[in-house]
Automatic annotation (TrEMBL):
Transmembrane segments: none annotated. Pfam families: Acyl_transf_1. It comes from Polarella glacialis (Dinoflagellate). GO terms for molecular function: transferase activity. InterPro entries: Ac_transferase_dom_sf, Acyl_transferase_dom, Acyl_Trfase/lysoPLipase, Malonyl_transacylase_ACP-bd, Mitochondrial_malonyltrans. This is Malonyl-CoA:ACP transacylase (MAT) domain-containing protein.
Length: 439
């Protein structure tokens, strides 16, 4: 956008039914609010914004003014290093003004105003969507020393401070120093991977802001879906981290209720593998299911430990099998063994629903392999997010759907580049246009 286009777009501002010319300085943008005709102004560099669609920025005095012409103290203006349109914020104007006080009461939100920490990785769309898809890895891509290169970014430092308060341990120290055995535990790994994905988003914001702000779609593998939903605006960072924390704890508890494990299989068809899974369930209560469809003839399976071990032996003896090995992931994830965790997660998601928002872009879900469109209500997402724990992750179908829907360029945001490796097997042309934002 040129400066002239920017001036043309932001000059008029509706105030008491009149078009008021506003001298918008360089670096400020007008943003459409949640209702037609409602706008507010955002400073691109700092994230400073109007707290109501009727506030105006006085360029000469360098302060915000209410619609009644009253200055708003700097401490009452929301400050953040991130651009934020995912939540509604309101002005704390001088209560001595009856009209201003009434205005505040009329629009006061039923929930508490967001704190700066909640704004991490919020994204401000700046134009029409580009054919870009953002991909986020899940559990299994973690490694000791991750975040080393991004830990000093202001936005990442803010997230890490918030995480320390919510998680009640130092996630950065765990990521940098391990031990690996602790980082691999589900209750530690999932919050770490959630933060790592969002740290990669901040790195992408610095290197290619348009790819982030104007992306057409997002998708994440298992835990990575929560990172994707955060970037899509469905949850702010703090809400997302609290949900991820509970999800991780619930999954680890469910995994500890019996002997469970997970394995990878490559070279066999889905139909053949499904038959082998059934044949591996010999005892009452045995569970052995396909947990992830990752790439053509590439899967992971999970369930009861003895049943999965039988499957591994059967797979290794089956013609065409290229690989069959146990994974470090510590449970029967994405099988019916996660039913207790699913119920806890659904309860947490329903509690978080008032803080959730419709996505700003397409989100391709694990459960269906299909997209949900911008504007989809969070109530329609909650059941799908819960079902993900007990359902096969349809990663390959989701990626193919993104390509079919016009996504031509991908960015894997997070450690280890595993999603790019899978892309090579899913679509060779898309692989050539898949970039990695490693942390």
């Amino acid at each position: 956008m040129t400066q002239q286009q920017f001036q043309d777009a932001t000059a008029p501002f509706l105030n008491h039914g009149k078009q008021v010319p506003l001298d918008v300085p360089k670096g400020w943008r007008r943003v459409e609010g949640s209702h037609p005709g409602k706008q507010f102004y955002v400073h691109v560099a700092t994230g400073t914004m109007s707290k109501s669609p009727t506030d105006l920025f006085n360029c000469r005095e360098e302060c915000w003014m209410t619609k009644d012409g009253l200055p708003i103290d700097q401490e009452d203006v929301l400050l953040s290093p991130h651009l934020q349109i995912l939540q509604t914020a309101y002005p704390q104007v001088d209560s001595s003004s009856s009209s201003s006080s009434k205005r505040r009461q009329d629009v006061e939100a039923p929930r508490s105003s967001p704190q700066p920490q909640q704004l991490a990785s919020a994204v401000l769309p700046t134009g029409p969507a580009l054919p870009v898809g953002l991909l986020f890895p899940g559990q299994g891509s973690q490694y000791v020393k991750m975040l080393e290169g991004v830990k000093d970014l202001p936005a990442v430092k803010e997230m890490l401070e918030t995480a320390k308060r919510i998680l009640e341990f130092d996630i950065l120290d765990l990521c940098l120093n391990g031990p690996e055995s602790r980082l691999e535990q589900t209750k530690f790994c999932q919050p770490a991977m959630y933060i790592a994905g969002l740290a990669a988003v901040e790195k992408l914001r610095l290197e290619h802001p348009d790819k982030l702000e104007r992306c057409q779609a997002v998708a994440g593998l298992s835990l990575g879906e929560y990172t994707a939903l955060t970037v899509a605006g469905v949850m702010d960072f703090e809400t997302g981290l609290k949900v991820v924390k509970l999800r991780a704890e619930a999954m680890q508890e469910a995994a500890g209720a019996s002997e469970q494990c997970m394995m990878s299989v490559a070279g066999l068809s889905q139909e053949k593998l499904a038959v082998l899974c059934q044949e591996s369930c010999e005892a009452p209560g045995d569970v052995c299911e396909i947990a992830n469809c990752l790439f053509p003839n590439g899967f992971s399976c999970a369930g009861s430990a003895k049943a999965v071990e039988r499957l591994m032996a059967k797979a290794q003896q089956t013609e065409g099998c290229l690989q069959a090995k146990l994974l470090k992931t510590s449970g029967g994830f994405h099988t019916r063994l996660m039913a207790p965790a699913r119920e806890r997660l659904l309860a947490a998601l329903r509690d978080a629903e008032p803080h959730m928002r419709p996505p700003r872009c397409d989100v391709y879900l694990n459960v269906t392999g299909k997209r949900i469109a911008p504007g989809t209500q969070p109530s329609e997402l909650i059941q799908l997010m819960g079902d993900q724990l007990c359902s096969c992750v349809l990663w390959e179908p989701a990626v193919r759907a993104m390509i079919a829907d016009g996504v031509t360029e991908f960015y894997e945001c997070g450690p280890m580049k595993q999603l790019k490796a899978m892309m090579k097997r899913i679509d060779a042309e898309a692989f050539k246009n898949t970039n990695t934002v490693d942390v």
